Known about the structure:
By secondary structure, the chain is of the alpha/beta class. Helices cover 48% and strands 16% of the residues. It has helices spanning 3-20, 41-61, 70-75, 79-91, 113-122; strands at residues 26-27, 65-69, 97-100, 127-132, 135-140. The N and C termini lie far apart (39 Å).
Amino acid sequence: MDDDVLSNDYYSRMLDAVKSAKFCNILTHFDYGVRRLNLSVNAFRLIAEPYLVNIFKNIIEKNIAFELNAKSFIKYGNKELYEYAIPLYISLGGKLFTLGSDAHVAEDYELGFKEMKNLLIKNGIFELAVYQKQQLIMVNI
Length: 141
């Protein structure tokens, strides 16, 4: 598939899912659909931003946290996409962040957490959203 077609398909589906979700705590894999594409941040922004603005507005309204995904951040080298998306989310009023290992093997557990925490701190975020029995708990980074 063409990068534009694939990206538009992925983000339109994500927007539909977020809008229709009756109950959800965390938006994960914000970049999964483009994870293996070779998109610059600017190309990503041009394709995804119209969708992301709507997606982020919806999750903010529903108090759904935004996940930083370690596999994407570290293993797929998409740190720059997070450096773009985090300030966008914050600019729309977003405050809830989580970290996800996406660990399919034990040695990947908490992979990149230090780097992701540092990026959040750089953006003025000092707490993470943690859910226990579906209840939001804010913890210091």
